[in-house]
Amino acid sequence: MLKVYASAHPGPGRYSPPKIAKTEPSIIVGNPDPRRVSTSHVERQNLTMRMQIRRLTRLTNAFSKKRDNLIAAVALHFWHYNFARIHQTLRVTPAMEVGITGRLWTMQDVLDWAV
Asked: Which of the residues in the chain have pLDDT under 70?
């Protein structure tokens, strides 16, 4: 569904989105298994990103003036999430779990790899 909002500029001091004027159906291509369709993994990843990347939180003074800086911040988040952070349920990093690496990475590893 495509949402069409009533107004693009709600006015100063208003933080909620404007009212939805109408919705337009959109075509979804493919043949997914209805028993396996779920958005919970994507929603959980979005929440994790919003909570851990300060630039993505609402009403904050931490922002990126340049697109490249935002891309770098998101990339750094995913590096830390997958290579440097031990996840409680896995007891290792996701990269270690799938066999990409056999150890925790440090910031020095990233700097050595990038240069």
From this structure: 8-14
